[in-house]
């Protein structure tokens, strides 16, 4: 297939693009390479995929030196004219939209970034797919849409009308807009609610990266909600395998549709929502213990109240994904944490 992966210099996008390239798909990667976090990490990921450039110009297309079937271009989703031209030129079969302004806490200080990228940008993706006969749109949602829900595990059949951060609200809006395009134009769309993704090449604003760096440097780590946090940590390889299942199986209209059902998953449109998580929540203090064990160092903890926009626990019900695609995450927390730390020590030249 010919596939567009937006956010391909990002954590999940990098791993997904490489997986698709390895299996023989033709991939075009798009990323704005913004400075939300260290761009050297983004360029480092691109170099692993054969995109050797430290300063890529806007709208420039660069061919990989490793994969003949990989082209990278730099742009943001708000650039609707370039996006339209890109779609018209490449005639994509499938689009995977992972590009977004990420982070719950950052949305408190820079809300407009989320409106531009996550809402305006997503509308541009929908329009480009609609007008270019794209056969399947898969896009990143988030477990944060569950907001103040207290029923666990979180199910895609639960109501999610009470987000507690603008980031979560922007992701919920993506699901609503996608449904509209599926309903009006027959565009198959699948939204994926990711649960705390971690692993090698991860984002520096995530807990594993922050904690590892601080422990190595002998600095204290901020442990919110006094450590009483629970997260459904999901290893990157398990995330990618789940995404690929939905890439290869576009959403179809629900034959059992009931117009009286309050369940959004019962829509007649070619529209799906799935949780992708490990479905095995881990206590934050146990997560920190796994880091300490691998590093052979003890963490200095600064225990603090929960932050605005944060939720105390996440727990994915992956029943639908398992039923439809036999999805079974396999990576336990100690194995995943150890893999990340080995990558981290190597990338930042510790001990060399």
Automatic annotation (TrEMBL):
Gene3D superfamilies, per the entry: NAD(P)-binding Rossmann-like Domain
Keyword match NAD: yes
Keywords from the UniProt entry: NAD
A Pfam short name: Epimerase
Stored InterPro entries: Epimerase_deHydtase, NAD(P)-bd_dom_sf
Domain NAD-dependent epimerase/dehydratase: 3-258
Keyword Lyase belongs to the record: no
Protein name: NAD-dependent epimerase/dehydratase
Organism: Marivirga tractuosa (strain ATCC 23168 / DSM 4126 / NBRC 15989 / NCIMB 1408 / VKM B-1430 / H-43) (Microscilla tractuosa)
């Amino acid at each position: 297939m010919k596939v567009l992966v937006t956010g391909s210099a990002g954590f999940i996008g990098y791993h997904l693009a490489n997986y698709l390239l390895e299996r023989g798909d033709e991939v075009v990667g798009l990323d704005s390479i913004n400075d939300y976090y260290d761009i050297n990490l983004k360029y480092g990921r691109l170099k692993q995929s054969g995109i050797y450039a430290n300063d890529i110009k806007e709208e420039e297309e660069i061919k990989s030196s490793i994969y003949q079937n990989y082209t990278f271009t730099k742009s943001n989703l708000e650039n609707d004219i370039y996006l339209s031209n890109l779609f018209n030129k490449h005639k994509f079969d499938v689009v995977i939209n992972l590009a977004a302004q990420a982070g719950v806490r950052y949305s408190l200080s820079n809300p407009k970034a989320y409106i531009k990228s996550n809402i305006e940008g997503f509308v541009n993706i929908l329009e480009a797919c609609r007008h270019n006969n794209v056969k399947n749109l898969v896009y990143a949602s988030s477990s944060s849409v569950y907001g103040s829900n207290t029923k666990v595990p979180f199910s895609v059949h639960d109501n999610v009308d009470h987000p507690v951060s603008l980031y979560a609200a922007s992701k919920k809006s993506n699901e609503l807009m996608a449904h509209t395009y599926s309903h009006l134009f027959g565009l198959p769309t699948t939204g994926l609610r990711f649960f705390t993704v971690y692993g090698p090449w991860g984002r520096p604003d995530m807990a594993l990266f922050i904690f590892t760096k601080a422990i190595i440097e002998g600095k204290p780590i901020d442990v919110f909600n006094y450590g009483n946090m629970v997260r459904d940590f999901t290893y990157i390889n398990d995330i990618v395998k789940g995404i690929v299942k939905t890439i290869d199986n576009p959403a179809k209209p629900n034959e059992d549709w009931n117009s009286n059902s309050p369940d959004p998953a019962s829509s007649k449109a070619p529209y799906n929502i799935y949780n992708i998580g490990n479905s095995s929540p881990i206590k934050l203090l146990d997560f920190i213990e796994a880091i300490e064990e691998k590093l052979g160092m003890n963490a200095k903890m600064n225990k603090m109240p929960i932050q605005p926009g944060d939720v105390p626990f996440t727990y994915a019900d992956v029943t639908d994904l398992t039923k439809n695609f036999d999805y079974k995450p396999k990576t336990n927390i100690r194995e995943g944490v150890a893999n990340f730390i080995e990558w981290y020590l190597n990338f930042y030249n510790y001990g060399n």
